[in-house]
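User: For a benchmark we're assembling, each entry needs the component sequences followed by a predicted structure for the full assembly. Here are entry 17's components. Please fill in the structure.
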Amino acid sequence: DVKVTQSSRYLVKRTGEKVFLECVQDMDHENMFWYRQDPGLGLRLIYFSYDVKMKEKGDIPEGYSVSREKKERFSLILESASTNQTSMYLCASSLIGAEREREQYFGPGTRLTVT
Amino acid sequence: AQSVSQHNHHVILSEAASLELGCNYSYGGTVNLFWYVQYPGQHLQLLLKYFSGDPLVKGIKGFEAEFIKSKFSFNLRKPSVQWSDTAEYFCAVNPSGTYKYIFGTGTRLKVLA
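Assistant: Structure for entry 17:
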């Protein structure tokens, strides 16, 4: 069974802290994604990675960075957390192969609160 | 810019009512289309997808969607909803040849028992 796991379900951090969100997938997928989900705004892409050490900015990369040192792991980093980064963060993965195989598989999400 | 519109933000239905959720996208090229569902407290999961061929696609739990290319639409339907269909539904578009997915803002469905 396909599995995407995220390191924490709930996280509370203080303004200015450096925050690491971890995501691991066990499906040998090449693509991995980080989204944030906010009420009324849907899912917005922060960053994605199509290979180890490769990354591309999504629609809202400001204030975030990512790291992909191993194929199965994709980390999202908030360099200096701010209150407007309070949100639900979703990780997803997908295959590179044929387009019909490229559906995304999502993790359970991390609800981050920055105080 | 590419975008996906879900015009119904909140929908309330009684059990056994029919459901149709709208999804329109703005992109002129070939697209792959998805509907995802998020049940309360659970992660997003795929309901159905369209890549090519028959524009009427069937998914899990009795859901179906119809791709109308001329209208840039991919509406989700279910003939008779159940209380357990209470969830948030997201439409997503993947422009063919890219790895980017554009999601709509979601529709919260509440089904009254």
